[in-house]
Every structure is written in C-alpha cells, then in structure tokens.
Amino acid sequence: MLDSRVIAEAEAAIAALDPSGPRDVVAADLAKIADWHRQAVEMAHQVEAGALALGRPGSLNDRIDAVRRDANRIADGFARGAVAFDRARRVVLAGAWPTRELIEVVRSHGDFADWLFHQLSALVQRAEEVTTHARAYYDRAFARVHADPGWTATVAEAFDADGNPRGARLADLPTDLDG
Amino acid sequence: MPTATRAVLGSPIFRPTSMGDIYGRAGRLLDDLRALPQHRRRVAIEALHWVTASPEPDGISKREAPPFPRRGVIEAIYDSFVIIYMIDTDGVLFLRVQERTDLSIEE
To answer: What is the spatial distance between Cα A118 and Cα B92, in angstroms, rounded to a whole number?
Structure first.
C-alpha cells in the first residue's frame, strides 16, 4: 500500500533543511532525507509493479507503459539522490566540506529531490486513475466471458471425471511451444 | 437391460469420461497453445509468465472464477487471452488459455 505521507514529510524535511546549522543536526537531517529517498524508491517500484499487474487492457496499454517507464525513471532518480545525501552526510560528519560548498550541493540536491517528489506525487495519481479505468475495462471483459454460454464447458473440460484439474506448469511446457 | 449389456456398461471401459481424461495429464492446455498462430502463441506464453510472476487474484485482471464447476479456479485476462489456472503447493497449474475477440470492445 502506497503511503502518500512519505511525499509530504520528505518535502517538508527538504524545505526545513539548514545546511549552515550545527554539524550533527545537519548530518541527522541529511540521513533522514536519504531515508525518505529510499522509501520513495520503494514507492516508485510499487507503482511500477502495480502497473505491471494491470496486464494489457486494450486501449489503456500506452498509459500503463508510460506509468511503468516513469516509475522506473523516478526510482532511479531517488536511488541516486539517496546516495548523494548519504555522501553529503558522511562529508558533514567528517568536517571535510566547507559550509558554503555544502550549502550549494545540498541546495542543488534538494531542488532535484523536490522536483522528484512532485513527480512521484503526480505518478501516484496517474497510477490510481489508470487502475480505476483498468478495473472498469476488466469488469466489462469478465462479464462478456461469463455471459458466453460455452464458457462453463470450457472450464469444465479442464477437469477429469473425478474433478481433478488437468493442466501444465510453465516450466513443464514443451520447448516447441516457445515460438 | 440384458445382463451382458449391464456388465459392459458397468465395466471400467465405459466409465463416464470427461474431456480432461481424453486429453491426458496436461488436459486441453497444450492444444489451446498449439492451435494459436506463432505470433499469438508468443503473447500467450508471455501471459503465462505474467500470471506466474504474481498469480494471486487481485480483483482487477486476475479474479476468482465462479464456483461452478469447481472452486479454487482463477481467471486472468491478458491482452486478448483468458487464462484459467489454479494455485497449489507446487505453484501455478495452468488449465486453459483461450483467445477471444470480445474482450476489448469499447462501450
């Protein structure tokens, strides 16, 4: 289940970050932001998996593909951001970075992160919309299948006289079926 | 009914037989797949991989089938295919794959 609070809390944490503050406070804030990034990676991957699970519902295919592509791209962006904020935290703890440079680097990453979180928020919205449309598509499709008078027989033919299922597993399919 | 006739009908040879028995352990699945043109069979196999990756019913593209003729059957729709399968301790057992032309008709 996607938790949209991650997005709101991360955006607030980035906005509140003060790179000129005490070193341990800045390091703790950077660690927190890096952690939000990792959670955002997870969210984006959930969106991608959810879109994949929608299958190929006719005219919605292009929208689903776009959600999957963008989710993957956004997850990559957050993964890079997490690495950058972790690195910044280590540098802050080591005291190896002049504050002015740190401010610039953190501001730059912060702007990018802010943009990414907006992208993620829009992506979640798009995924919810396409899921709603897909559900309606499948409602109609399944209704057509079940309205087919021959469908019950099609299913029944998959069982033997004792009611045992007859079928095959993916790994057991003959190789000549691979196309 | 003559005794001899009753004996023949009651013998294992004339035991009621379903289509599943005729088609062997794999049932109709292999015939379903072999009946498809190669490019559609490729999509059907892709559909089986898609089901295998996440076979549990999600109430959207994968749904529990009506309980008749048997409970525990799951139906999935992928592209123009309806896939019938069950989940057991060994994983996913595919029962039928049927291509249909009436799935993506817009209303």
So the answer is: 39
